[in-house]
Structures are given as structure tokens and as C-alpha cells.
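Structure ticket #2291
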Amino acid sequence: MRKIEHIGIAVKSIEESAKVYETLLNTDIYKTEAVESEGVKTAFMRIGQSKIELLEATSPDSPIAKFIEKRGEGTHHIAFDVDDIEAEIERLTNEGFQLIHQTPKNGADNKLIAFLHPKSTGGLLVELCQEKP
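Resolution: structure written out below.
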């Protein structure tokens, strides 16, 4: 793992939350994108070498909607940048971590992604990210 790629924050409304985070972080959203497979709309802001990703549910049964219903708005996951996502999946599986995705899938911001289950990471949802070739 090379660095923290981004921190994902679940929000009810990107439009409303953007006002807060753009002011707090003194930066603008540089990209918004829908990820239909996850039922989410995303918005990204750069902070140095890392990013903040705002996540808004696009349907009431999406993982983000369920997260907000249970826990409210807030930190959803931490994503780590990796060189070779398939090798990391294999390494972490061999180390005993439980993965939500056994194979990489398309994610936002031109990434291949895979999530580790919070049950095996001390309660933290971890995302692996690799830039698509």
C-alpha cells in the first residue's frame, strides 16, 4: 500500500455537504460521478496527496443509504492506493482478512476497487484502489 488515496464520507446531500467541506478544506470539488453498481453519487476534493470523497445514495436500498440510516452521516471508509490490486487481494486473503470483493470492480475516479469487510479490520471499512491502466 502506497498511501491513503481518499477518505469516504457518507452524506445525505452532496449539494448541501459540499458547502461545508469546500469551506472547511478551502478547496473545490473537482469531479462528480455516479457509480450505478454501488447506487451512489460521488464528489471528490483534493487535499495534498490525498482526497476526500463525498458519497450520496442514489436509491434507498444502496449501501450508503443503509449506512446513513444506521449511523448517520460521517466517515464511511478509508481507501488505500495500491500498485497491484489483485496481488493485494491475494495477500490480504492469505493473511486472513475477509474481503467483500474477491475480484476488483470498476469504481469512481478511474479506479479498480475492492473492499475489505469491517469484521476483519477492527470495524473499519477499507477500500483498495488501483488506477486503471
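Closing remark: The chain has one domain: 3-131.
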